[in-house]
Amino acid sequence: MIADRPISELMRSSSYDVDAAVPLAGVAEHMSNGGIDLVPVRRDGVPVGFLLQADVNRLEEIVDTEAVTVGQVMRRDVCTVRVHARLSAAVRAMSVSGAGVALVMDEPRIVGWLTALAAMRILAEPGAGGLSASEVRAQILEEHVHLADQLKHVADLAGATLSGKTDAVAQLRSRGVMLYRELCDHLDVEDRILAPALGDTPGFGPLRKQQLLAHHAEQRSELREALSRLESGGGSDVEVASELLRLVAVIRDDMAQEERDLLDPNLLTDELINVSFSG
After folding, report:
1. What is the pLDDT of residues 135-168, one digit of tens each?
2. I need a surface site. Which of 67, 116, 188, 267 has the fewest CB within 10 A?
3. Least confident of 13-17, 32-36, 186-190, 259-263
4. How many domains does the chain have?
5. Which residues contact 241 (CB under 8 A, 6 or more apart)?
6. Dihedral, CA atoms, 123, 125, 131, 134, nearest 10 degrees?
């Protein structure tokens, strides 16, 4: 079973971690230049947190990164597991501690990391044993939180571009490509785990599944077409910014409707008998 695989086979490797006392500015630059998504943080040699690129993007807009330390802005919902631990042990450690990330240790080094979201995705793979309805709901909602961060960042860059800030243009195009790809990945995850879960819901379950898959097929086609245009360098800066702002609005509305209509805890429930939704 995939849950029994060593976490060392599934983690993201890490060769860069920082002390909580160092200024944010240098770390932010290193993350941006190196394409690093997550940096583990230590204090007195002990793992105490982590820093996300998405957080750095927001912080650079509102704080003086030379004046704050990594420890002041890092996330603290972290736990540690040994490099030879199994995936099931890592998931259990994150669940018990409420951690969003497990730092993988080969004492005294941090050799990698695994997010709770990544662990859920791995467990959702075909043949992994499946997720309960409530676990499916939790994973999709967590992905929505992540996507909301990305949407805000792209919207801010698009607004800056439309305001004439030329230094935002290159970053907007790069972030736009990343957003399109993440949205396509998200649709794949929903097709793989949410659609089957909806098919098992009472009343019109099979219809809910069919409608979700049809909607995703249409969205996927539009996203891939838009991604192709952006990657080819097509469109003026104003056109790209305007198109991405429209995308942000559409996806925000789509996520809100999905959370209201399909991710209701009374619909995606582990209860054997559910009388709250009959159609």
Report:
1. 888 878 988 988 898 899 899 999 999 998 877 8
2. 67
3. 32-36
4. 2
5. 157, 158, 159, 161, 162, 172
6. 90
Residue from 116, 131, 133 nearest 266 by CA: 133
End-to-end Cα, the chain, rounded Å: 36
Please give the Cα distance from 177 to 234 (Å, whole number). 12
Averaged pLDDT for residues 232-257 = 93
Rounded to whole angstroms, the Cα distance separating 147 from 142 reads 9
CATH number at residue 77: 3.10.580.10
pTM (2 decimals)? 0.61
Amino acid at 104: V
Among 98, 96, 95, 100, smallest CA distance to 74 is for: 100
Examine the domain organization and report whether 164 and 251 are in the same domain. yes
Same domain as 148, residue 47? no
CA distance 209 to 195: 5
Check residue 272 and give its pLDDT: 55
All residues at 6 or more sequence positions from 77 whose CB lies less than 8 Å from its CB, including other chains: 97, 98, 99, 100, 101
The reply to whether 10 and 116 lie within a common domain is: yes
Instruction: Give the residue carrying structure tokens 């997010």.
Output: 115
- Domain co-membership, 56 together with 157: no
Flag whether 11 is in a domain: yes
Which domain, by its residues, includes 203? 133-261
- Together in a domain, 15 and 112: yes
* Residue 220 counted as domain residue: yes
Q: Report d(CA 114, CA 74) in Å as an integer.
A: 17
Contact 202, 273 (CB under 8 A): no
Spatial CA neighbour of 263 closest among 255, 253, 271: 255
